[in-house]
Design goal:
477 residues; alpha+beta; FAD/NAD(P)-binding domain; D-Amino Acid Oxidase, Chain A, domain 2; eight-stranded mixed sheet; 12 helices
Length: 477
């Protein structure tokens, strides 16, 4: 009799990879099927949303969830976390209030204290008292006169380095520096792939496209699903749909109609002149979709910078946010966006969009006009369950028996989804009850920093990006 797996996972993005790792940790046999040649090829991420401070419009409750989930993921994948802070500001042209952001930060400080009280190992963002720092206009005028520091150690030093570049007269005061760190998806993908290659309880199948999913529950065969690929049919008791923005395609084959949005977005890689010291990630808030949409500048190694601009000339696209129809689970992008997702970008489109992104940054950093395109964009599509386009916390749903659909929007939700699925498969008697909950994942902990460095660099190169994007700005032990 051919192999029967407890769990079959379709899609090896961050959610599918973490689900497989957590199942393997408990000795639960699973098969992970990914159509690409490596894991975590999904929509790229660059920021650990440990507080959601890039989103002034979302609820405080969502911010708290993002903080809790981000801390849990950072504990799993420490070698993917860049420990540099984030500069949060509001241009004078915008209606957002600094006081509203500060009030929310005070709630987050208290919540962070609660998380640390629950488990002291949650203290990965520094002391709660240092989670954020406020800088008045007088502070800025004083700090800008201080010397640049090559590798800043204090909040004042980080702000001083940033002020050497920023035209802060355009910004409302006070300005905020918050301990939301960088997050490197090449490094997370490398560590996950190396760990799953070692996992005896996970059959990792790369370069494997799923052609059909067959529901055979009614046949009472001792398994509930057949997953068809080109060369095999895999038998599984429990099915996990972790296909990211394409989750609707599996739902369609199973005659499930689910309301969802999908959104195509891009960030741009630029190369800039060497500067004297490290700078924090820089955020200039603005209303999404308007000409003054948020500008985000993320520093990488060797003078590379990633740019988001929440306008339709930069990160957002015409017809880039679409909704499923009443009788259709999977929304369909137009031909232009489909071509980008399938075959990549045309050179003139890369050039123009990257120049638009650079121009957007020069509104606040005048010398950034000397930046040049550094590579092709980082791009992809994300799912948003339901119909709220500003929702940033999505987890998992269970549309039918023995079936889970991962609905993460942000990578930080992946561990929460894995835990919920593990609970569900116990409830549905796929596996016996787990008597001891384990926080650490020994598979991940067994992977060395050097191995992560090597594979992360290889993944960046394979995908057509500078290998500098696979390195941490601030090296970790």
């Amino acid at each position: 009799m051919s192999k029967v797996y407890n769990v079959g996972i379709i899609g090896g993005g961050v959610s599918g990879a973490v689900i497989a790792l957590e199942l393997a940790k408990y000795g639960i046999e699973n098969i992970l099927l990914e159509k690409e040649e490596s894991l975590v090829n999904s929509s790229p991420f660059c920021h650990l949303h440990a507080g959601g401070n890039l989103y002034p419009d979302i609820s405080t409750e969502q911010c708290k969830v993002l903080m809790k989930q981000s801390i849990a993921m950072a504990r799993l994948f420490p070698q993917s976390i860049d420990q540099r802070p984030t500069f949060i500001s509001i241009p004078k042209s915008e209606t957002y209030k600094v006081s509203d952001i500060q009030n929310r930060l005070n709630v987050l400080v208290d919540y962070y204290k609660t998380l640390i009280k629950e488990d002291p190992k949650n203290k990965i963002l520094g002391s709660p008292e240092d989670y954020y720092n406020i800088f008045t206009k007088e502070d800025l005028n004083t700090l800008v006169k201080q010397p640049t520091v090559t590798v800043p150690k204090t909040a004042n030093q980080w702000i001083t380095n940033a002020l050497k570049l920023i035209d802060y007269t355009q910004l409302k005061t006070p300005i905020i520096l918050v301990q939301e760190y960088g997050w490197n998806f090449f490094r997370l993908g490398a560590q996950a792939q190396l760990a799953l290659n070692k996992a005896t309880q996970c059959n990792l199948q790369l370069n494997t496209n799923v052609s059909k999913v067959e529901d055979v529950k009614h046949l009472k065969l001792g398994y509930n699903w057949k997953i068809h690929t080109k060369n095999a049919v895999h038998k599984v008791k429990y099915l996990v749909n972790s296909c990211g923005f394409k989750t609707g395609e599996i739902d369609t084959t199973l005659n499930l109609n689910t309301k969802r949005l999908i959104e195509f977005k891009a960030a741009y890689v630029s190369k800039w002149q060497p500067i004297n010291g490290l700078i924090p990630e820089l955020i200039f808030h603005g209303k999404r979709g308007t000409p003054n949409g948020m500008v985000q500048l993320t520093p990488y190694c060797n003078d590379y910078y990633q740019i988001h601009g929440m306008t339709k000339d930069v990160t957002l696209f015409d017809n880039g946010l679409i909704q499923s129809k009443t009788n259709q689970s999977q929304p369909e992008f137009n031909a232009i966006i489909k071509e980008k997702l399938k075959s990549g970008w045309k050179e003139n489109d890369i050039e123009q969009r990257t120049k638009n992104a650079i121009s957007n940054v020069t509104k606040f950093i005048p010398t950034f006009k000397s930046a040049i395109p550094g590579s092709k964009p980082l791009y992809g599509a994300q799912q948003i369950p339901g119909d709220d386009p500003i929702l940033r916390v999505g987890e998992v749903s269970f549309p039918s028996k023995f079936y889970a659909r991962s609905e993460i929007i942000k990578a930080s939700s992946a561990l929460t989804v894995a835990n919920q699925i593990i609970y569900k498969i116990q409830e549905e008697a796929i596996i016996p009850t787990i008597k001891t909950v384990v926080t650490k994942n020994v598979l991940l902990n067994s992977i060395s920093k050097n191995d992560i460095n090597a594979l992360a660099s290889k993944l960046a190169t394979q995908r057509g990006y500078p290998n500098s994007l696979a390195k941490l700005v601030i090296d970790r032990d």
